[in-house]
What we know:
By secondary structure, the chain is of the alpha/beta class. It is built from 6 helices and 8 strands, in the order H-E-E-H-E-E-H-E-H-E-H-E-E-H. The protein has helices spanning 4-20, 48-56, 73-86, 102-121, 155-165, 203-217, and strands spanning 21-26, 37-41, 61-63, 65-66, 90-91, 125-128, 172-180, 185-191.
Amino acid sequence: MSDMPWRSLRAASKAVVRRQLDLRVEGFDHVPRSGPVIIAARHFHHLFDGCAMLATIPRPVHILVGLDWVRSAPAKMAMERACRAAGWPVVLRRDGAAPVDNLDAARALRRAMTDTIALLNDGRVVLVFPEGYPNIDPGFTPKPDDSAFLPFQPGAVRLATLAAAKGIRVPIVPAGFAYERGERWRVTLRFGEPLAVERRDQEPTALAALEARVRALSAPDGCHHTV
């Protein structure tokens, strides 16, 4: 897989960060320098979250993205091609503002799971937003305000157990975002200690622990405590 799309996306993300964000990163030593890893992050801003991650992590990052918000067929095809070129798995959320065919959603999910396991087998970084929706989005979000969190979907831990079943051990690194609005947004990106989950019976406990860690890591500056 070519890393050229990632290099271009990283350069563009760094430009966004330089222009619009005052970004501080904490706990980066928790992100493995090599090997497969799932980063499970709070989803606050539809654009800035991904840009902050791409600008910070000096490894190719593959984001699991939802494309159900794309309405026109030509735009959807273009976005799907772009995601394939970047190696970004695509899902279709069924609970959004736009109607999604259940069969299409199921097919997209199966392909996304297969593509993600292949990325992990190749030793890649996969970024997942387990809430599914950001707080700030120009289209639809079910979150009522900046402080809202949605319950975590089980995809991140399920991917880890599916990988483990194939002999691929994948740590899940929790990541929190704390935002402060302003002319330039002040953003703190915090990484926490990785979690390990390898069996299906461990998934509920691991998911609850993951959500708790991401919430703690997303506390406003000055309110954070170590997890």
